[in-house]
Specification:
The chain is mostly loops. The protein contains 1 helix and 2 strands.
Length: 66
């Protein structure tokens, strides 16, 4: 049995079915950031964080999101 993008293939799939399997969204990589890390953009809303608008509790978020 062959596996393509995490899906087990039966062996009798058509070419179009194989193309659809290849188009499936892949899971995003795990974010291994810690609480003390400082991001340029907010992790939640992706807006640029100015120095005075960074959350004191967690540097990965802006004050609005945390």
């Amino acid at each position: 049995m062959t596996i393509l993008n995490g899906i087990k293939l039966r062996g009798n799939e058509t070419f179009t079915e194989l193309l659809e399997i290849g188009k499936k969204k892949k899971r995003p990589k795990k974010d291994n950031s810690k609480k003390g890390d400082i991001f340029i953009n907010c992790r939640c809303c992706a807006e640029y964080i100015r120095g005075d608008w960074r959350s004191n509790f967690d540097g990965r978020y802006c004050k609005n999101c945390l």
